[in-house]
Records
---
Amino acid sequence: MNLGHMRRPSRIEVTVAPPIGIAMLGLALVAAAITGAPHPVLRPLVAFAVAFPLLWIALATTLSYRTARALRAAGVDVPVRTRAMGSFWLGFTVAHRGRVFPAIGILTSAILKTADVVLDAGPWAEIPFLGAGRAATSRWEVMVKRRGLLLVGPFRVAVELPGSVIRATAIFEGTHTVIVLPAVYHLEPFVDSLLAGRHVAVGRFQSLPAATEEYVGAREYRPGDSPKLIHRVLSLRSPDPYQFFVREFRDPSRDDLSLVLDTAPPLDGEGAVHRYRLEKAICFVAALCRTFAERRLTVRFVCQRGPRDLVTLRLRPRDVDLDRLELELAQLELTGDRAVLRRVLLGEVRRHGAAVIFVSLRQREAVEQQRLPMVTLTPDHVPVFTREVVGQ
Amino acid sequence: MIDWFRRVDPSFYHKEPHVLRLQAQIDRYPDEAQAEVRLSVLTADRMLHAVTTIVALSAYAVATGAGALDPHADPLTVWALAVLAVATPRALPWSPRTEWTRWHDALLGSVLIAIPALWGRVDPPVLGLALLAGSTLYVVRGRGRLALLAVAVGVLFGVRAIAHPLLAPAVGILAAGAAVLGVRAIARVWGRRPQVVTWSAFAALLVACAYTFAGNAPAVALRVPAAIVAIAVAYLGVCLIAGRIRRAELIARPEGVLSLPQSIVPLLDRSHHHAIICWLG
């Protein structure tokens, strides 16, 4: 084992035993020494009676402290990314650089932080025996439910031999950052109803498919559709003689639909509820984009990341694009602006027509949004489409 | 489209503010819960019980000068020491208390007084003293045991001040009071820092030694090697007890911890709302 790459403890934290125990022992030692001193015959007995506890406690205390100083951080096993609601294994390898005495009953723990939440109470993983010059790894299973950044560290290693007056804790400063991607909801199959007649047919300007467009499916006939698009075979198969189906085409070179996420803070001051809705909306958007990618659709995702910071992502049905989206969503906050949002929606509707899905944080659509030919999904719609939470 | 609009549960988000206000202030692993688990581990530890008894008997041997203390000359001291040697381990929080242990204590108390007398003179007064110790230990139980311990401590220190008839009860009461205060102070701390029991045990053995050196030095001087062996056995027993307590501490530690306070998490599953959960691997 190469001890050169290992980190020394940044500091040793010493927790002293309760004073009452030390005081009682001290008084008893003094009493035994004073009462035994006048009797020379009893001297060996007095010396043994007084020396044994002192030596035991001194040895346990010294070993606890020296062992803590001799420990080294040999490695941290932590992933770069994880997903909210999923769990990951956290490993911390500690090496004992002492030469003579082994480390017995050492406890290790890691501090975990996400936003304003700090987990510093353990759990303490035990390494029962660590020989001199050896290393051992403690493992924890960590489940993070909050997206964003998870800070792992500093790590602590505590040594307290039985009878020791102190608990010596070696603290290894330094943190490791884990990006917690949003949880992805498992959506109901009928989420496709959001696409019905929106992603090309209504958004297109020409009435007939162009040469570059490709057939993507069929849907029920709606007034205004060109009779030339009627799918004769499907319509004849239909049990209802007045039911017709039309063919849908798409242009692979352009976005199929636009997805806009509301990140504007509330006007009414219900901050906590709004943040909760944002979390749900983010998970829902991530799931929706995955579903659209499975349908081989190209999605233009728009949201406001900061006061003058608009994020526009073109999500083709590729894993790398979805990863990019999730990285953006992982660190999104309620920092939008109503005026900017209004402009964005108008622009998207001009660009894509009805092929715009707006995921709103408000329970009711605003009046100006009702006039736009797009789908607005309020927080009430999220549970309708959501079946369960998928961790990994 | 109309279909999924109809599926909306209107009450779902109306519950939301209520759920958010629930802020989990429930500590899943408080010190008290850990102390309870630790105590159950210690209660199930038979080795600990055996070692505790051995330590107490060794302390009795030290305090009586390895059998040098004469029950004829000092019956009250012998009675008090026998009662303390048997009742103290039983008063420890992890000690089992059953009908069988009452018989066990009574028998042990009697034997402690009777057996050393076999090397000297066994007569009705010694047997009577052994019977008295045994019956006291059998009859007194529950909170009475704690009172019995205080009385025994009072008797031990009271008989040393027998030259002053008015002073003796005062010394006894003071000693008993000090013992009660010391035990209460330790009991308050031991739930959080169980290793305090180790130092208390060392202190109790040293007090027993000091008592012997002060009042029974000539008798002990005749049996110094035996006394050293007895105190060594007691000390080693205390070291073993410290190890068993440490083992219980490790067994009783929490296997997982949840973050506090609660935070907002994107869940439909509302079983718990902690931001981070960490288990031992």
Note: Chain B touches chain A through 76 residues (CB under 8 Å).
---
Amino acid sequence: MRELTYAEALREALRQKMVADERIFLIGEDIGVYGGAFAVTAGLFKEFGAERVIDTPISEAAIAGACIGAALTGMLPVGEIQFMDFVTLSMEQLVLQAAKIRFMFGGKATVPMVLRMPGGSGTGAAAQHSESLENWFVHVPGLKVVMPSSPYDAKGLLISAIEDENPVIFVEHKLLYRTKGHVPEEMYRVPLSQANVVREGRDLTVVATSIMVSRALEAAERLAQEGIELEIIDPRTLNPLDEKPIVESVIKTGKALVVHEAVKTGGFGGELVSRIVESEAFDYLDAPVRRLAGLDIPIPYNRNLEYHAVPQIENIVEEARKLHQGAY
Amino acid sequence: MNDKPLYEALSAEDTARLLREIGPERSREMLQTMMLIRAFEERAQELFSLGRVHGTMHLSIGQEASAVGANFALTNHDYLLNTHRGHGHVLAWGSEVDLMMAEFLGREAGYCRGRGGSMHIADVSRNNLGANGIVGGGIPISVGVGLSIKSRKTDQVCLSVFGDGAANEGAFHESLNMASIWDLPIIYLCENNQYAMSMAVSHAFNIERISQRACAYNIVGVTIDGNDPLAVYQAVGEAKARAQAGNGPTLIEAITYRWKGHSKSDREAYRTRDEVKEWQQRDPIPHFARTLGLSQEEVAAMQAEVVSRIDAAVAFAEASPEPELSTILEGVYA
């Protein structure tokens, strides 16, 4: 079986789409000769040249604006924000321009752009290079928010995001870049707004995003040895959310645990819990729906503190076990 | 106003040359478009005071020459990125006054199906990429339009319009720098109407001319009389030629004055009535009518035509239905 890393899968998606469609170009900081801070675009500058792999000055607002303007006039830009933290400098363009243009203009304009950015902690980069800000974008109608959790999804979702007519915030995870998985060579698509039941199980539903999917899978293996079977669902697209498989799963298991890396307060988990308890699954719940998320702190530098700032496999094991055993 | 003039007025020879170049028919059209903008906004204000308008609006009365001069130097093949004070540019771009008025009154037939209102009028089918409610919000978008034109190898240019206030946004710097390093075909038109809401240009800048900022990007920067449509026409025309020759963007500062308050909430405590009156003496409309040598009767006939177009637009807009509540969710996603 052909295996690629998550970064290679993303690169293959970009490359295959760029070969197929001349309207696509890449734009961002150090994505050219340097190949991107996480090497996602390595080699693409050599293959496609400076006009289609555009290195920019350090100007995040203008990178976002460049994507919007190009998208409005017939191009298909794929921008890169070097660290998700830096997207704070692009917020006006994304929230007030990209997200609003279509609606504000009566549905008569489209903004088909993708903005890729790596989020997440675990690299020792401390508070300003480790943010998980995806829920900021979930809160903005008009934007789509995608978070791939595996190399297979990374490629298939990026191809779908590029083909989508809306502005897509594409959130990668730094720790996933080097992880390997099965990735077919052909150009395939993972549809946006389609959740994935990553693992089936009868006892408890875990809804996890991004790197928490692989951690939840590992937790499930450990709990399986105790006879506890987790069902794991990866929404893949946070907004617009495919809520049906989540609701169906909770109806089946009667228990739900939501896991993400971003800080708990105001995080996507709150939205997931609300969707579950507002749905018909409410009547099937045997226990409160629980959230396992990042602590409400900036990401600390110290290795041990950083490790404990966000959910790890053992935290998921423990929380799922307690929930299963009726501790809540 | 400064003692030293900020710009050199067009000479009599230049004025005559430009009028020859533009031709009598089109120059009359320029004047009439200025009159149309004035009439549209005066009617807008009237409708507002009658309580027939839901939101606010930003009037450009006194600034019509800038909108007309700039847009008449371009075609609908080019692109426009507009400001919140943008009625003039929409009309000068050649968009339909009926659909504008319908949008202003929040009707389904309006340019944005009543979802945008005065501040967000766009006519994407004519490459008018919309007015913008965020000061400087359109400037980064111009970079993408410029890149797109360059990539598609057309001879289009992008007119990016903003006010003096926007020149102090960080986005201005990021964007002009990018446009410059890549020689993008963009015309940056800064309409310096002396105030960013209440903040006077003299307090907000420590330079005499906003166009001086062009030197930071090694691009051409000019300050011109924004109340003379021919001066604006000439500067934008030159900038267009420069852009099409591959020589990148230009920063044009058009000196003008906003006669009305910033928006409907403005009590204008930051300026004197005398100052406003002084600028009203320099009303660009009668001034340009005199330049064209038109008789009072001719001007009156043109004005009557404009008023009947506005009457028809109001009638059209008021006869148009409001958006159906059942469509409220439409248009968020493609």
Note: The longest strand of chain A covers residues 256-263.
